Amino acid sequence: MCQLLIDSKLHNALQTLGVVELRPHQLGAFISIDRGHDVLALLPTGSGKSLLFQLPALLDPPGALTLVISPLRALQDDQATTLQAHGISTALLNSDLSESQHAEILSAFTQAGGILYTTPEQLCRDDVRNALQCSSLRRVVLDEAHVIAEASDYFRAAYMDLGSFIEAFPQAQRIALTATATKQTRKRIIRRFHLRDPDIFAVPMRRNNLHLHVKKIASPAKSLHLTANDLLYRGVENELTEWWVNRSGSAIIYCATVAETQTLAAWLKSKNWKALCFHGELSQKKRKRVLNKFKTKGRSLVVATTAFGLGIDKPNVRLVIHAGLPLTMDDYVQQIGRAGRDGKKSRCVLFYRPEDFARNKQILLHGASEPDRQSYYLTNRLDALKDIVSADCCLWKIIEKYFGEYPHKSCKHCCVCKRHL
User: Fold this and answer.
1) CB-CB contact of 37 with 198 (8 Å)
2) Whole-number Å distance between alpha carbons of 305 and 316
3) Which of 27, 42, 325, 403 measures 20 to 30 Å from 59, CA to CA?
């Protein structure tokens, strides 16, 4: 290990990526990857998961190819832009390209190597598979690996074919990266991505700088002439007002559906909040514009679906609001993880209505003709949120228990702990 740490080539590669040194939680995983082992790394948002494949790619011999599979083009674009700014050979292979551009990038990277970002859907194409067979494919990386555990015949079906794809490249190292995964989800990732006796690295879920709060939206009295949405939006605005007056940094508001995202963003704009709106139905051009505004402005506000946030590295998010129940416990923890990536105190507020559970179940099971193992898997992750909204003990202890960790002492700053002080 000492030899590894003082290796000049490693030092130069770190400098190229603008990194001084590996953090303790990165070092063990990197050593395992450097030795050629398959790896499953569960590291919190903002902990530098991407470095675990970017650094080895820089240390590879000429012509070696690192293939990175990720679920969102916005995520790919964000990481590729950063790497290209460092002068690293990187490209995106996706459906935004013309056929000639697609063929040119595929040919260049399968011959010369580098880091090539793509989606599972691209790997279903015969031309892509055939070209990769002629490449020096060194490793295949599954970023945001929890998505493969959620995939089904009616959601991101191409993920279900990754096993057959990866088996065609037995020489390639396999790396799976995610921020959250229960023990059951880990087993699914290992099985579906065909990881071979992987080394598993995990960092504790708890982040003490995130102060968690849950607020129930009660049914309004008919005499008040208010709807449940009126009460929800007022609650959201109260949180935003406190954030604006007392805190710097940015804020993210998550909604469960595109329609709810658009409606809340429009309502906030009518109240003179400069709210950006982000969801999967925006054009690629508009999504890039919103992401750029959010990342470059020191203080910004975005209303978004779960499509927003994966891989987005903005350290000063001080407030994350859920305007309605997240789809699953895993989504909740992923999304609050966008806050406080610089280690400073940040607030996470979950507004919910009891009927949100029925709505979420309908969303999760959309397209399923009848209950199956996948349906039970998804609804169990939704039901786990019942422990959060009805909690009588520290919220972080509930999260730790859900992800299979030994619960630590009460955090003293979530809404339940404050009630018990």
Assistant:
1) yes
2) 20
3) 42
Distance CA 395, CA 399 (A): 6
pTM: 0.86
**pLDDT bucket at 73, cuts 50 / 70 / 90:** confident
Are 316 and 345 contacting, i.e. CB atoms less than 8 angstroms apart? no
Residue 265 to residue 420: CA distance in whole angstroms: 35
Query: Each residue of 102-120: pLDDT tens digit?
Result: 999 999 999 999 999 999 9
Return the bridge partners of 213, or none: 349
Give the model confidence (pLDDT) of 188-235 as tens digits: 999 999 999 999 999 888 999 999 999 999 877 665 667 778 899 999
pLDDT of residue 394: 97
Whole-angstrom CA distances from 277 to 76, 252, 337, 363 are 20, 10, 20, 21
Tokens of 112: 């010369």
Rounded CA-CA distance 33/43 in Å is 15
What are the start-end ranges of the H helices in 271-372? Answer: 284-296, 329-336, 356-364
Query: How far is Cα 102 from Cα 94, in angstroms, rounded to an integer?
Result: 8
Contact 301, 276 (CB under 8 A): yes
Q: For 6-10, 352-356, 369-373, 398-402, which range has the lowest pLDDT when averaged over its residues? A: 369-373
CB 272 within 8 A of CB 299: no
**Strands laid side by side in the 114-118 sheet:** 90-93, 114-118, 64-69, 136-142, 173-178, 39-42, 199-202
